Amino acid sequence: MADIESTPATAPAGEVDLSSATPRPAGLQEVGMSNEDAMNTMNAPDPRQSHQKCLCLGAYTWPILGFLVLFVMLAAALGLSGEALSRSNEAVDTAKAALFGGKGVGESTYIPVPNEPTGQAALVPASPPAEPTPPPSPRPQSDAPTDVPTPTHEQRPKWFQILHADYQKLSLFHDENGVTTSQLAEAALFCYQQEMFMCTYDVICPNGKGNPPFKGGPPYTTNKDSLDETQWVPYYRSNVHPNPQKEKDEAGKTIQLDQKEGKQWAQIGKIPDGKGGSEENSNGLCWDYDEWSNYDAVNIEDVWSEETRVWMLCCSDPADENEKDLVVE
């Protein structure tokens, strides 16, 4: 009897039984998943990895947002600083225009002073309210008779000290904004603030060199005894002469005289013997500084200290009606 070899059964051509070729895990068989579903499930990306990427992106996002906020704040600060600097420059330009011939003598001059003082200006006491200017009298008048003659015109001179709150505020404003000017110019601007004008030499010393000044000098003040006995007072140099025809150019226009800011000062006190004063020269009383210094080129501020330049004399009216049309240089 011939041996018969057993041959495994084969599937028809073109058909493959994946169930017999690839065993399925027991767990997948129990849930009824096909091999294809199982492969897709195993090849799917791990959701935990995607979650970790989001956390990684967030770690970089916060520093970036922080830098953006810092940049915006810095830009805003620079913008505010630039605006403040622009306003400060505008105020300085206005002050310079008023100082150097921007207004006529008879016009109302605006002094650019901040509404609220800052820095050193905050230490200056507030000034008292300005007194209204009395209306002009219908006829010339003079003060009560005294031993010293007084002007008969209606300029109503008034003494002030550089310790006045308005003057201190003006001076500090110039210092803080880098505006360089002379004390005479600041005195003129101070008089404008009081709605007055800087007086001329003939008002300060109506009787000329060697004689007492207006009303014998400034009135008594609480600090008068502590002031230096030598006192120079700035004055305005009038552009109008007694004979106006001699002060006309070829076109008939009034010739304006330059203001010598470092020389236009009158002595209302006493220059001691050690500094050139003597009985022969009345200790410099009512001497003009330009003449006293022998017309040299040295300004008074370079020779005499500020303690000898405390007083100012302001007038209620210009030195002459024609001066309203002239410009202070």
TrEMBL record:
<feature type="region of interest" description="Disordered">
    <location>
        <begin position="110"/>
        <end position="153"/>
    </location>
</feature>
<keyword id="KW-0472">Membrane</keyword>
<feature type="transmembrane region" description="Helical">
    <location>
        <begin position="60"/>
        <end position="80"/>
    </location>
</feature>
<feature type="compositionally biased region" description="Pro residues">
    <location>
        <begin position="126"/>
        <end position="139"/>
    </location>
</feature>
<dbReference type="InterPro" id="IPR055918">
    <property type="entry name" value="DUF7495"/>
</dbReference>
<feature type="region of interest" description="Disordered">
    <location>
        <begin position="258"/>
        <end position="282"/>
    </location>
</feature>
<feature type="domain" description="DUF7495">
    <location>
        <begin position="173"/>
        <end position="239"/>
    </location>
</feature>
<keyword id="KW-1133">Transmembrane helix</keyword>
<protein>
    <recommendedName>
        <fullName>DUF7495 domain-containing protein</fullName>
    </recommendedName>
</protein>
<feature type="region of interest" description="Disordered">
    <location>
        <begin position="1"/>
        <end position="29"/>
    </location>
</feature>
<keyword id="KW-0812">Transmembrane</keyword>
<dbReference type="Pfam" id="PF24325">
    <property type="entry name" value="DUF7495"/>
</dbReference>
